[in-house]
Amino acid sequence: MNISWRFEQSTIDWQALSDLYRIAPLGTKEPERLKITFGNSMFTCFAFDNDELIGAGRALADGADCSYICDIALHPDYQGHGLGKQIVQHLINQSKGHKKIILYANPGKEGFYAKLGFKKMNTAMAIFENEDAMIANGTIAS
Questions:
Q1: 110-140 tens-digit pLDDT
Q2: HSE toward the beta carbon, residue 29, CA cutoff 13 A
Q3: Whole-angstrom Cα distance, residue 80 to residue 136?
Q4: Can you give the residue ranges of the N-acetyltransferase domain (predicted)?
């Protein structure tokens, strides 16, 4: 592995990022929407093995109070080598100075994020576009 890190997005292939989310598997994320969501994020992190995009994540942040880490993805062939942890740690480091750093975890991944210092929140709530799918996968209760 020849891992390199990028924190800006001017050279990102959005179709490659879309493919990464599908392979990860974290669902279908259209390239055009990824370009918007990453473009509107204060912090981004991309991992490459040579020139192949193998990992990504982003954080929405307001610069002082709250940073929200989301959309962490790592190619399955690279999982188990500490790269996912490094993506999250890069985003935590970029988010330093915010009063709180919040993270949305996919069901079953809570233990991974707990090892990085994240605690479960008792009062977090959300409205989802596809509520039935979120109930079915265990993200929210019915």
A1: 899 999 999 998 888 889 898 998 899 888 8
A2: 24
A3: 27
A4: 1-139
Q: CA nearest 58: which of 47, 66, 49, 46?
A: 46
Identity at 111, one-letter amino acid code: G
Extract the runs of DSSP E, i.e. beta strands, from the chain: 3-6, 43-49, 52-61, 66-74, 100-103
**What CA–CA distances, in Å, run from 6 to 9, 48, 120?**
8, 8, 29
The tokens for 58 are 């982003």
Asked if residue 25 has a cis previous peptide bond (ω within 30° of 0), the answer is yes
Specify the pTM.
Answer: 0.90
CA 130, 132, 134 angle in degrees (round to 5)?
Answer: 75
Could you tell me which CATH number the domain at 3-136 has?
Answer: 3.40.630.30
What are the CA-CA distances from residue 140 to residues 107, 124, 125, 135 (Å)? 9, 10, 9, 5
In this prediction, the residues of the chain whose per-residue pLDDT falls under 50 are none
Q: Is 58:90 a contact under the CB 8 Å cutoff? A: no
